Amino acid sequence: MSSLSTASLVDVEREPGKPPLLRAEATGDALSWAAAHRDALRAVVAEHGSVLVRGLGLRDAAGTGAVFSRLAAGLMTEKEVFAPRRTYSDGVYSSSKWPPNQPMCMHHELSYTLEFPGMMMFACLSAPTDGGATALADSPTVLDALPAELTERFEREGWLLTRSYNDEIGATVAEAFGTDDRGAVESYCRANAITFEWQPDGGLRTRQRRSAVVRHPVSGRRCWFNQIAFLNEWTMAPEVREYLVDLYGADGLPFNTRFGNGDPIAEDVVQLLNSVYEANTAREPWQAGDLMLVDNIRTAHSREPFEGPREVLVAMADPVHLADCLPTVEVTTG
User: Fold this and answer.
1) CATH classification code of 141-275
2) Between 303 and 166, residue with greater pLDDT
3) Residues 6 or more apart from 299 whose CB is under 8 A from it?
């Protein structure tokens, strides 16, 4: 059965400014419902880029993890994390620990790695009292809406991610690489096209250049696929940026992005990127029990500021190699 005909077996609600919505009738058995609708759900994601499933009644980490595992062939272990997460079980994580009053701007998960998830899965166990949506943006649409001169430069040069690891802010070396053994960290960096420099205080600085535009490995569509805006210094709240620059210096920020040739990215460019994302954002407030599946290459996601308790679990699946996405920038591993 083709993906389109499989997708047509489920009734997906489409409304401007909102993600595709599917109302489930799970009758208290989310796992059986997920198993029965697995192919149809994945077909909806292939067609629309995402789907929000409402009515599953997901309530705990164990049951949610079982649903995640049923919907994917295998869950990925996150590498090169930029912010800590709680691990519930293999491949099942909390959302990144990020200040509730600060947005996590649009990005594609692990788009700075050489192997990244093709599918993101989110489940809301506890909805905040206000805000906190996991909003979405279609990356081919965003690419088309950006000025051609800017995207052509990023296609030529790629983008550069710089990171400075310390024990105070962001992920530590051990959290990011799964070890604090220098030899193991260096081996990982060489194998993954990351240049590194150990600092006198024992800290680590890394640089990695990646493609900003890739081809979707299935559809072939060109996608704006990166974390240029999200991990850039100008996306931070001004007071946070000033504090970090005072503390670590302009070159020692926990993370920052640049043009692929190393040139700084001006504040107005970052504002433009974020404004184009906002103009093409689809959002729907979380309700407890919701499940969301997202094509991580076609669809960017964000986390909006919130108030009150918020528990959203995350899983990554369907690993994709950058080399299979026709990258525009060559990477050299050693």
Assistant:
1) 3.60.130.10
2) 303
3) 49, 50, 136, 137, 138, 139
